[in-house]
Specification:
Length: about 350
């Protein structure tokens, strides 16, 4: 077990890093955040902050030697950066899960080898691959970059031959996959956690609504059959065990024709798990810290119904109105600049179902 007073390094200084550092402080740990951008949200809540690029190996060495373990708040960290840090200090979750989630092709291959259902997909390396994939999968389909995509970025929805022709002329080389569109009725996500002893805890699956490729709301409980809820939890547990995973893992799922289709996995605390901050005794952020520190997991049982709503862009201007609702818990990220599509905070609204 990591002793109280130890320092946890966090790669990435966004809102997830901010909330992780708060959870760590509540358990008696200090946090050291490493972030290339100046004045990150997590810098306000952590004991130490290093502002340097992910290729500044002198800064990385000082950071790694100053902490007892390292975790991360997002997936798109260069492999060489992780290799360098890992030569000095342990990283949790380990590299296997991160490497799989960083590449959509690796991720889909991993899931299908586990016997889990995904959208139909094919590797696209060149124009010939692209045209062949369109012929096999058909339209509508989504052309996705294999790496560096999030919140709908790096994706092109293809619905007709004109788009196929335009893309074929525009792209000289590809590092993509083509996915068939899944005709789904609902999207849910499971926030799950596993520690070094193999203990697993899963929060209740939440029902998600997206707008413009960005998560807008997550509602708990999800209005889906109980059998699917159980299957979703078992599915997430299967992934955790296969990866010998330590920490919190988010699993996004489509419900299509009564079946669960895995959309993607995220080896970190997850936006759709923010409801746990007010709906559970132990939230996803504390569970993650407990897991990577080698502590026993906490009680993640839900004690109230919650709808989490992201405050995106100018939604932050509604803060004063939101505060008039006594059943709304507001969480702001301390970001100085408001931009369209930027997550500025979230609000958890508690409710009792009639």
């Amino acid at each position: 077990m990591l002793p109280i007073g130890s320092t946890i390094g966090i790669l990435g200084g966004g809102q997830l890093g901010r909330m992780l550092s708060v959870a760590a402080a509540q358990l008696g740990f200090k946090c050291h955040v490493y972030e290339p951008e100046k004045n990150p949200p997590a810098g306000e809540t952590s004991a130490n902050l290093t502002t340097a690029s992910y290729t500044d190996y002198s800064a990385l060495e000082k950071f790694a030697k100053s902490v007892d373990i390292v975790t991360f708040e997002f997936e798109n960290i260069p492999s060489r950066t992780l290799d360098y840090i890992e030569s000095i200090v342990k990283i949790f979750p380990d590299r296997k899960a991160l490497e799989i989630s960083q590449d959509r092709l690796f991720e889909k291959n991993f899931l299908t080898k586990l016997g889990l259902d995904t959208a139909p997909y094919l590797k696209v390396d060149n124009v010939s691959d692209f045209k062949d994939a369109i012929k096999e999968i058909g339209t509508p389909a989504i052309l996705k970059t294999r790496t560096m995509g999030y919140d709908g970025k790096g994706q092109i929805k293809i619905t007709n031959e004109h788009q196929v022709s335009q893309i074929s002329k525009t792209y000289k080389s590809f590092n993509h996959i083509l996915e068939g569109m899944v005709n789904f009725t609902k999207e849910i996500s499971v926030i799950s956690v596993r520690n070094s002893k193999g203990e697993i805890s899963c929060f209740d699956p939440g029902e998600n609504i997206h707008e413009n490729g960005i998560l807008k709301t997550t509602t708990i409980p999800a209005q889906v059959p109980r059998a699917l809820i159980t299957d979703a939890i078992l599915l997430a547990s299967k992934i955790l065990n296969e990866l010998d995973y330590i920490g919190v893992l988010g699993v996004e799922l489509f419900i299509s024709k009564g079946k669960l289709i895995v959309n993607e996995i995220a080896p970190r605390v997850h936006n759709s798990g923010h409801w746990t901050q007010n709906g559970c005794l132990i939230d996803q952020f504390e569970q993650h810290i407990r897991a990577i520190a080698g502590w026993p997991l906490g009680d993640g049982a839900r004690f109230i119904n919650v709808t989490m709503e992201n405050l995106i862009g100018d939604d932050i201007l509604n803060t004063e109105m939101i505060l008039q609702d006594s059943g709304a818990a507001i969480h702001l990220y301390g970001k100085k600049e408001t931009r369209p599509g930027r997550k500025m905070g979230h609000v958890n609204r508690m409710f009792i179902k009639n």
